[in-house]
Structures are given as C-alpha cells and as structure tokens.
UniProtKB/TrEMBL annotation:
Monomer. It is found in: Cytoplasm. This is Glutamate--tRNA ligase. PROSITE patterns: AA_TRNA_LIGASE_I.
Length: 471
C-alpha cells in the first residue's frame, strides 16, 4: 500500500489525438484516475500532439469529450506536448554538454548501407555510429542528429509493478536519436522530459510501451532524475482473443455513450477489465478508488465482453438515484435525437423512474419501457398489442370505465376492481392485462398495468381505456 511519507502520487494520461477516445485509452485513463484519486494525488492530462497532421483541435476535443462523459476529471490545464518542443531540445543539448549524448553526422544513406552490410554478414543491424567517440575537431560543418550514449554492455532492468522485473540486454539497444537534424525532438525524449517536469510519480500505460521504458530510463539516468514507478498494463482483446480493433464493433467511448450505456456502468466495467479486487464485480466509484492498486492488475490480456458490460450497466441503472438518472437520460436524449418531453409527461417520467430503472441495461431500453409516458394521446397501439383489442376485450373495457372512475386509485383498490372484472368474465388476469397494455401504452411489453395506471392517474388512464374501448 501507499506510504504517506512518500511524495504525493501524480499520474498522467497522455493520449495522441486520433479523433476519439478508444476503449484501451479510456481504461488507461481510468486506471490513472483511480490510482491518483484514491490516494489524494493528482491526475494530469497531456495531449501528445507532435504529429501536426492528426493533431487538430477537433481531435483533441473528441478526447476531452470522451473523458468528460466518463467523468474522468483531470487537475489543471491539459498540457500540449508540441508547445514544449524548446524545453525538450534544451534537455538534448544539456545531455550533449555533459557527454551523455553526441552529435552524429551519419546520413540516411550511410545508415542504410551499414544495415545492408550487417544483414549480409549476419550481424546485428542495430546502427553503431562511427561518431560516438569521434574527436570534435573532426566534426564536419553538416547537419547532425543528437544521439543518447547507451551503455554497450550490461543490462537494463525495468522494475515493473505489473510485469515484474523485465531485463533487457544493453547490446540490444542502439544509441537512440534525441534530436533530429532539423532540431525537432523525438517523441521518446518528449515523453521523459514532460513526465519529469510534470512531477509524474507513476507511469501507468499499455504494455505496448514496455520496450520504450528501457530507452526512456537511459534519459532519466543520464539526467540524474528519479525514475517513476512503471506499470505496463496488458492490452484489451476482443471476445475472439485477438487485439481489440474495428472489426469488434464500437471503438470510441462516444459510441458506447450513444448506444446508451451509463457512464457509471462503463467505469465499473472498464475497471474490472484487467483488474480485480477479490470476487467483486459490481462496485461504486468510491469503492473503486479505495480498492484500486497496481498489484490487482493481471498480466494477461483481458477480453471485452458486451454481455458483462450490459449486465453491470443494468445494475448501475437500477442502483442510480432517480433524479440523477433522469438527468442522464435527458443528456442521452439530447445527443441522440430522442425527444424527451418537458411538460406533464416529464413529471410522469420522474414518478415512473423507480420501476422503469429495474431490468433496463441501456437508456434506449429505459426509453422503450417508458413508452406509455412518452407516447402521444390518443394512444395508437402497435400491431402486436392491438391484436388484443377484439370485440370481447373492448366490451370488458367499456364495462370497466365507470368502475375505474369511482375507484379510489390506490393499488389495492385497482387490484380489486380489475380482479373482479377478470373473474366475472371467467378470465385469468393476464387475459385482461393484454388489452389494458394496448390501451395504456400501445405496446405488449410494458411495466405492470398497476404501475402505469398509478403514474398516469385516474383521468388519463380512464381516457385512454375509454378511447381503446371505442376505437
């Protein structure tokens, strides 16, 4: 567990603006957010926007929108990596001055020729620069890159909180370029300088970055900077066990938002994707923050499972506060062109929420269950429910209308009136419920007839039943 005497925890999420926040990125952001928030630390956001073609304001906004929907708030302003290029170059020159880096004048053609010769001779194709130990007096007046001087022998050990100790032989690493010949810094340098300057204590990211860690550690060591704690988390696989990609369907979190999954259910599901706390499946944000730790992250890839996501989302909808759920439902409706009412119907919707939210996995399912509130009056039954309105059932509804006008409109009284009506016609209640569903909701799958009548009230219920009896 975290020791309070250590420096406060600082984590970061550092996406490239690809135009949306994909599921793997969302989970990485969530893990960083949970780890920091559960320890009273800071969660920072850095946009790795050095690829100018892809880094548009719209692409950045899409990531911010995805994080906002998921409820992953970050501390302070989002940092632009591109805006810090001068600082990255400054560190490269500092490394050059202290002899930890050197100028390399090798041309792309020379490097290609070296590799071809090495391949032909069966040697390692890692480029060994002839300028590594050259006398500065021999330096030509020509463009150069700045390379990091990597140890030739020995090993680099990444102490990883998820993967354990990962050992890489230094002769497997070439002298990494820090600054290109046009003076622009490479991504690998930028990441280290930004993490150091932002005070990041824990680097929690996908394990596709594991090999980068060995190279990045070289920069920390050469600068005399303390290393962060590394935690490289396995990537997410699709249900078929292959790396999650377009062929598995939805990719960006906004697609899950538009399908109507609630954010709380999404957070719970993503937290469980590759991390566990005993056998706990359903939990709140507060529990996730209290429980989340790096040792609970599995070493193997997690599989994305829509069924499990739906199941958890259903539990979160059922457990939600009614007023908060109504606000979320309204936000969903605004982004997906569903029309939610404003007037009397909104009050009905609020009154119906306690039973609507049971057994709905998504907001569209909730809206479908609420059809009796949202439909226009007079109600037009769909084909399936309309089939229940035959002459016999219309006759029974006609008899019921005056009895319902006089009922006291409590559940007990309504059960008595409807029970008696069914009995006097020798029917079980289900046979009477079908035409009542058609009359009240125009659908055959609805909440309980009593729940609907109590929400709609006497006047509206009687008017709908009367209309169905005569249509």
């Amino acid at each position: 567990m975290h020791d309070a005497t250590h420096a406060p925890v600082v984590t970061r999420f550092a996406p490239s603006p690809t135009g949306y926040l994909h599921i793997g990125g969302a989970r990485t952001a969530l893990f960083n957010w949970l780890f920091a928030r559960g320890r009273g630390g800071k969660f920072l956001l850095r946009i790795e926007d050095t690829d100018r073609a892809r880094s548009t304001p719209e692409a950045t906004q899409a990531i911010l929108d995805g994080m906002a929907w998921l409820g992953l708030d970050h501390d302070g302003e989002a940092i632009s990596q591109f805006a810090r290029a001068d600082r990255h170059a400054e560190v490269a020159h500092q490394l050059l001055e202290q002899g930890a880096a050197y100028k390399c004048f090798a041309t792309p053609e020379e490097i290609a020729a070296f590799r071809d010769a090495a391949r032909a001779e069966g040697r390692s194709t890692l480029f060994q620069s002839p300028w590594r130990d050259a006398d500065p007096a021999t330096h030509p007046d020509a463009p150069f890159v700045i390379r990091l001087r990597t140890p030739m022998d020995g090993t680099t050990v990444i102490r990883d909180a998820v993967q354990g100790d990962v050992t890489i032989r230094n002769d497997q690493l070439d002298d990494m370029i820090l600054l290109r010949s046009d003076g622009t810094p490479v991504y690998m340098l930028a990441v280290v300088v930004d993490d150091h300057d932002m005070g990041v204590t824990h680097v929690i990211r996908g394990d596709d970055h594991l090999n980068n860690a060995a190279r990045q550690m070289g920069i920390y060591t050469a600068m005399g900077w303390p290393l962060p704690v590394y935690a490289h988390i396995p990537l997410i696989h699709g249900p078929d066990g292959k790396k999650l990609s377009k062929r598995h369907g939805a990719l960006g979190v906004e697609e899950y938002r538009d399908m109507g999954y609630p954010a709380a259910g999404m957070r719970n599901y993503l937290a469980r994707l590759g991390w566990s706390h005993g056998d706990d499946e359903f939990f709140t944000d507060a529990q996730a923050m209290a429980w989340f730790d790096l040792d609970g992250i599995g070493k193997g890839a997690a599989r994305f499972d829509f069924k499990k996501l739906g199941h958890l989302c259903g539990q979160h909808i059922a457990a939600a506060d009614d007023a908060a759920l109504l606000r979320e439902l309204e936000a969903f409706a605004r982004t997906t062109d569903h029309d939610l009412p404003t007037d009397q119907r909104k009050k009905w919707l609020a009154d119906a929420m306690p039973f609507l939210k049971q057994r709905a996995k998504t907001f569209p399912e909730l809206i479908e269950k609420a059809h009796f509130v949202l439909t226009d009056t007079p109600v037009v039954p769909d084909e399936k429910s309309g089939a229940a309105l035959d002459n016999v059932s219309r006759g029974i509804l006609t008899e019921l209308t005056p009895q319902l006008r006089d009922a006291s409109w409590t559940r007990d009284d309504l059960e008595a009136v409807l029970g008696t009506a069914a009995e006097s016609h020798g029917l079980n209640f289900g046979k009477l419920a079908a035409p009542l569903r058609a009359a009240l909701a125009g659908r055959s799958a609805t909440p309980s007839v009593y729940d609907m009548m109590l929400v709609l009230g006497r006047d509206e219920s009687v008017a709908r039943i009367d209309h169905a009896a005569r249509s």
